[in-house]
Amino acid sequence: MIRDIFDNIMNFNDKTFFFKENYDQFFDNDDETVFINEANHDVASIYTSILINCKSLEAFQREVLLNLFKSFDFIRKEIDPYKLKDFQYCLTEDRELCLYRNTEKGITNLIIDEENLVSYSFISKTDASKDELQFFDFSTEICFEKLALMFFSH
Questions:
Q1: What is the pTM of this model?
Q2: How does DSSP assign the chain, residue by residue?
Q3: How confident is the model at residue 124 (pLDDT cuts 50, 70, 90)?
């Protein structure tokens, strides 16, 4: 059953689903459990949801999103799958894609605008001195693994 759902998703846009071949090995048996933890399942679901629901994303936004999800997959495989946490997304009226996490420590945002700029922010709920704001210009190289780890760090 999961294999059928996955194959249907892969048919949606094979080029953007970079991890298809990485997950094929999990479908070789009859086990219905594909992901190590629920957060990993949520990440894949959110990625699929973003691509389906935000059809107006610019090429730059799709490229950044793809690189972020490659980094999420790298974290899952090489560092620690439990670093991946649940998050949500929205597309603002200004067509900025916002990935965000709201935890007991604060609110973490990654904002991908359509003008080649990515911003990261953390707004602490308890200590304003821990607030962070960083901008990443796509004209320079962005370390997506670092950005992904920052996103899941709080």
A1: 0.70
A2: -HHHHHHHHHHH-TTT-TTHHHHHGGGSSS----SSSHHHHHHHHHHHHHHHH-TT--HHHHHHHHHHHHHHHHIIIII-GGG----EEEE-TT--EEEEEE-SSEEEEEEE-TTSEEEEEEEESS-GGG-EEEEEETTS---HHHHHHHHH--
A3: very high
